[in-house]
Amino acid sequence: MDTATIDQAYGQLQAEFQDVAKSVQELAGKLQAASQAGNADAKEWLLDLKQIALDVKDEQVQVNELLQNIHGFVASSNQQLQQPQYQQPQQGGGMFGGGGMGGRGGGMFGGFLGGGFGRAMEMGAGIGLGEDLINSIF
Q1: Is the CB of residue 138 less than 8 Å from the CB of residue 43?
Q2: What is the pLDDT of residues 70-95, one digit of tens each?
Q3: What is the pTM (predicted TM-score) of this model?
Q4: H, E, C per residue of 42-85
Q5: Distance CA 113, CA 115 (A)
Q6: How far apart are CA 82 and CA 107, in angstroms?
Q7: Which of 49, 50, 51, 104 has the fewest CB atoms within 10 Å of its CB?
């Protein structure tokens, strides 16, 4: 699997979460309008929708935690792979010369860590409904 595939899957996951948020927001608006129009059931359904939104948010928190843990594992594995093995200096490199594996672009996972998903995880980016959306709906 390459970084472009991972970034594409992460983008699709973000888009799906945005679709869920939009759907919840639209249904909440309809239920609020029905409740204000005197539909007694709509108020109860709105509370049910709020619980569903909170459950979805909790699920998304877990997804974000899983993604961050995967990213942390890969970053740690990459760092371990880049640890210098007591080797003799290569010709022309000298003690402090180039040619090492250091930096984000090196190692087996360098491309993964430098991709869009990797950067998003480093910045602590999350995907989900969020408190602001839930509070604005309800």
Answers
A1: no
A2: 877 877 776 776 666 555 555 544 43
A3: 0.58
A4: HHHHHHHHHHHHHHHHHHHHHHHHHHHHHHHHHHHHHHHHHCCC
A5: 6
A6: 6
A7: 51
**Gyration radius from the chain CA atoms:** 23
What's the 3-state SS for 19-51?
A: HHHHHHHHHHHHHHHHHHCCCHHHHHHHHHHHH
What length does the chain have?
A: 138
Are 117 and 8 contacting, i.e. CB atoms less than 8 angstroms apart? Answer: no
From residue 24, give the alpha-carbon distance in Å to each of 2, 27, 58, 101: 34, 5, 15, 47
The candidate with the shortest Cα–Cα distance to 100, out of 79, 76, 81, 84, is 84
With 0-12 / 13-18 / 19 or more C-beta atoms within 10 angstroms meaning exposed / middle / buried, residue 103 is exposed
CA–CA gap between residue 132 and residue 60 (Å, rounded): 15
Which are the contacts of 89, defined by CB distance < 8 A and separation ≥ 6? 95, 97
**Other CB atoms closer than 10 Å to residue 110's CB: what's the count?**
19
